[in-house]
Amino acid sequence: MWIRKRIDISWRDLSRAAVYCLMARRADVEQTRVEALWSESALACLSVRSGWDLLLQATAFPPGSEVLVSALTIPDMVRIIEDHGLVPVPLDVETETALPSPETIEAGVTPNTRAVLLAHLFGATAPLDRHVAVARRHGLLFVEDCAQAFRGLGDAGHPQADASLVSFGFIKTATALGGAVTIVRRPDLLNEMRRRQHEYPIQPKREHLRRGLHCAVLKLLSSRIGARSLLTLLRICGRNVDRFLNSRTRGFPRHRMFEMIRRRPSTPLLRLLRRRIEAFDIDAQQAREQRGRRLVRQLEPVAACPAADVEQHAFWVIPVLVEDPEELRRKLLAAGFDTTQADSMCVVQPPCPSGTASPENARRMLDQAVFLPFYEALPIRELDRMARIITPGKPG
Ligand SMILES: *Cc1c(COP(=O)(O)O)cnc(C)c1O
User: Which of 149, 222, 266, 375 is a plausible cystine mate for 120, CB 3.0–4.6 Å?
Assistant: First the structure.
C-alpha cells in the first residue's frame, strides 16, 4: 500500500532533532542564525500562521477593513483575519494557476480594502507581476502565502511582495516539525513584528521533542507494510481513515490555535530549521519536478491537474480533477494507492450582505480533486501504473 503522504524528513535528520533538544544555546541567538540565511528582511516564526497573525497585528488596520484572499486556502489563515476584526473577501481562483487573476483582484477592491493575501497552491508558484501591480495601484499590502511552495533558498518569494510566508510545518516540504520564515520587505512592519514576537513565550523544548516522536511513529506507519496494517486496523475498528490521518498531522489543536501560535520557536526547532534549509537538496527537488511533470503528462488531457503547467513548480502535492472522486479513490485504493481529498483546505465564503459572487471554481476544484500519493520512494513504474488506472483507455 502506498500511503497518501510521507513526511519529508529522513531518519538521520529526525535523530538530529532529538540531539538538538540537548542544546543550551539561547533561542534568540539561533533565530538570528536562521534569519541570516535569507536576508535582513527575514523573521523566523513558530508557524506561517504565527507570522500572518504578527503581520496583521503590526499593520493595525481599522476594524471592518477588507482583506482579499485566495478563495482556496487553509481555514486558519481566514480565522486569523476575522480575529483581527477584519473581513476576508474571497477571490475565485483559476484552474491553470490555482491563483486569482489580476482582474479578479481589481474587481474585488472597495474603498475598505487594505490588503491582499494570495496562496501559491500545490507547490506551483505562478508569476505575480501583474497581481502586484494591481495591489500597488490601489495602495494595498500584498502578501503571498508560499507555505506549499518551498523550493530552496534561491526562491525567496516575489521581490515586490510586501511579505512572503514560507512554512516548514509537519506536512510541508523540508519540514522542521514546525517553524516558518516570513520575509517582510517593509522595515516598519518587520520591526513591529519583531518587537511583538519578543514578548511571546518560547515554545517548550519538550513539545518539539514530542513532535519528533510523533513524526517517527508516522514514518513507521507510512512504510508500505505499515500503511497496509494501519488502514486494515482502522477499517476493523470502524474508524474513518481520512479523519484519523488528518487529525494526526494537524499542527496545533483547533480550539487553542491562538494560544499556540502566539509563541516563539524553541532553540532545537530553530536549529533543525537551519539544518533543513542549509542542507536542502536542490537536485532531489529537481528530480521530483521531473517526475511530477512526467506523471501529469500521462494524465492529461483525460484528467486535469490544476496549476500543473506552471513553470516554477515544487509538485508538493498532485491533485487530479475528476467527475467522481469517490469512485476514483476506491479504484486506486483497490490497486494499492491511498489518496486523499483536500480535507485540510476550505473554500472561503463571501461576507454575508455582499455583492460578491460565491467562488464557484474554487468549489469545483475542491470537490473534484483527488490528491495522489507522490514521493521519492514511489518508483516510476508504480507512478506509471497509477496513471494507467486514472486514465484507462488512454493510448500510449
Ligand atoms: C500549511 C499552510 C499554512 C500554514 O502553515 P503553518 O506553518 O502550519 O502555520 C498556510 N497556508 C497554506 C496555504 C498552507 O498550506
Answer: 149
Residue 147 Cβ inside 6 Å of ligand 1? The answer reads yes
Q: What is the pLDDT of residue 155?
A: 80
**Ligand 1 atom closest to 73 (CA):** 13
Closest residue by Cα to atom 10, ligand 1, is 147
Residue 395, pLDDT above cutoff 80:
no
Q: How far is CA 233 from CA 143, 228, 239, 240, 242, in A?
A: 43, 9, 9, 11, 14
Q: Which of 347, 352, 336, 372 has its CA nearest to residue 6?
A: 372
Domain-wise residue ranges, the chain: 23-202+252-388
- Reported as a single tens digit per residue, the pLDDT across 275-320 is 999 999 999 999 999 999 999 999 988 889 999 999 999 999 999 9
CA of 285 to the centre of ligand 1 (A): 20
- Reply yes or no on whether the pLDDT at 369 is more than 70: yes
72: helix, strand or coil: strand
- Per-residue pLDDT reduced to its tens digit, 136-148: 999 999 999 999 9
Average pLDDT value for residue range 178-197: 98
Say how many Å lie between the CA of residue 320 and the centre of ligand 1: 21
- What is the position in ligand 1's atom list of the atom closest to the CA of 46? 7
pLDDT at 353: 59
Q: How is domain 23-202+252-388 classified at the architecture level of CATH?
A: 3-Layer(aba) Sandwich (3.40)
Q: From the CA of 238, how far away is ligand 1's center (Å)?
A: 30
120 ligand 1 Cβ < 6 A: no
Q: Which of 171, 152, 81, 151 is nearest to 117 (CA)?
A: 81
Place of cell 467527475: 323
